[in-house]
């Protein structure tokens, strides 16, 4: 079976949303190219040569590439992708004057084509995201997270994932119960467990994401610590089961709507790590948290993305 490569050139702030759209459409081997990612690997000792000219790529632009079977359903799926990308402006994201390019790929070429994009990626001081086909020996206190980039849209390279990872590394304690709201591929649930959380529950309304998260949990042998549930937070976790820490890497407007529920599900002095926030919504998120009885502990940023870490205060 031959394949079609779909290449989308888009503004960076819409990168996460578009990657999710491609994942929903069933694309395999989705890879993201951006200046941020290129800078992160230029000092990698396994890279023999790094052409500085590639850093001339516009830092505000991402190129996302994925693959679909070249079959009778292709045109319908491509139309759906184009429709969904056009709709993301309503969520406050600007895709810019994006381009969608399509090319043909022979069966014997497609697998190696997308795997070339993925190498072990270190986030913060300890966490290393490793593709399943790579052999990686951790050094010191490094914590290895195995991911299959061909299956999931959350593979650790995006700034929001990295912001949440740094916060989890700083705040997770060994006895903690952690909820991951909007868990996607389950990467933050897995990271929380690998960093020592005693129990993690990942929740997502998307059944396709839930299937991917369950597979990623099994890939990391964490079935005894991480549980993935399909549905809304209020529907799948009893209200009397509170967490020490809740992490949510989704859009700012969704975070604001969830804050009241997040507070209900947090223990006294519990922590809320939120990301997926662009600069113009940071104050909105902070003000909503304060209005609901949270103390802002920290605001971190990477590129144009922000994370807000807050603590639940007493009544």
Automatic annotation (TrEMBL):
Class of the enzyme per the UniProt entry, highest EC level: transferase
Binding site for S-adenosyl-L-methionine: 161, 182, 204, 249
Lineage: Bacteria, Bacillati, Bacillota, Clostridia, Eubacteriales
UniProt keyword annotations, A-Z: Cytoplasm, Methyltransferase, Ribonucleoprotein, Ribosomal protein, S-adenosyl-L-methionine, Transferase
Role this protein plays: Methylates ribosomal protein L11.
EC numbers: 2.1.1.-
A Gene Ontology BP annotation from the UniProt entry: methylation
GO molecular function, a single term: protein methyltransferase activity
One GO term describing the cellular component: ribosome
Pfam families from the UniProt entry: PrmA
InterPro entries linked: Ribosomal_L11_MeTrfase_PrmA (IPR050078), Ribosomal_PrmA_MeTrfase (IPR004498), SAM-dependent_MTases_sf (IPR029063)
NCBIfam families hit by this protein: prmA (TIGR00406)
Catalyzed chemical reaction(s): L-lysyl-[protein] + 3 S-adenosyl-L-methionine = N(6),N(6),N(6)-trimethyl-L-lysyl-[protein] + 3 S-adenosyl-L-homocysteine + 3 H(+)
Family: Belongs to the methyltransferase superfamily. PrmA family.
Highest taxon of the lineage: Bacteria
Subcellular location: Cytoplasm
Name of the molecule in the record: Ribosomal protein L11 methyltransferase
Coiled coil region boundaries: none
């Amino acid at each position: 079976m031959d394949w079609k490569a779909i290449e989308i050139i888009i503004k960076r702030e819409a990168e996460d949303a578009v990657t999710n759209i491609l994942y929903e459409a069933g694309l395999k081997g989705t890879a993201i190219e951006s200046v941020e990612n290129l800078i992160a690997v230029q000092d990698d000792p396994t890279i023999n040569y790094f052409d500085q000219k590639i850093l001339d790529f516009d830092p505000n632009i991402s190129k996302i590439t994925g693959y679909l079977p070249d079959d009778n359903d292709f045109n319908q799926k491509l139309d759906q992708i184009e429709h969904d990308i056009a709709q993301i402006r309503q969520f406050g994201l600007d895709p810019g004057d994006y381009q969608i390019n399509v090319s043909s790929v022979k069966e014997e070429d497609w697998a190696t084509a997308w795997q070339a994009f993925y190498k072990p990626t270190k986030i913060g001081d300890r966490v290393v995201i490793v593709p399943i086909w790579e052999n990686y020996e951790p050094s010191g206190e490094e914590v290895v997270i195995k991911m299959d980039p061909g299956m999931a849209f959350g593979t650790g390279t995006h700034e929001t994932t990295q912001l949440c990872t740094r916060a989890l590394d700083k705040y997770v304690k060994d006895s903690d119960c952690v909820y991951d709201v909007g868990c996607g591929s389950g990467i933050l649930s897995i990271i929380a467990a690998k960093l020592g959380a005693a129990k993690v529950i990942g929740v997502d309304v998307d059944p396709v994401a839930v299937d991917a998260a369950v597979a990623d949990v099994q890939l990391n042998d964490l079935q005894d610590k991480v549980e993935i549930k399909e549905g809304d937070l209020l529907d799948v976790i009893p209200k009397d089961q509170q967490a020490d820490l809740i992490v949510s890497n989704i859009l700012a407007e969704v975070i604001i709507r969830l804050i009241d529920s997040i507070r209900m599900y947090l223990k006294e002095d519990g922590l809320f790590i939120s990301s997926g926030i662009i600069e113009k919504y940071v104050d909105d998120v902070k003000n909503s948290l304060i209005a609901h009885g949270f103390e802002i502990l920290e605001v971190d940023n990477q590129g144009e993305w922000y994370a807000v870490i807050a603590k639940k205060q007493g009544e």
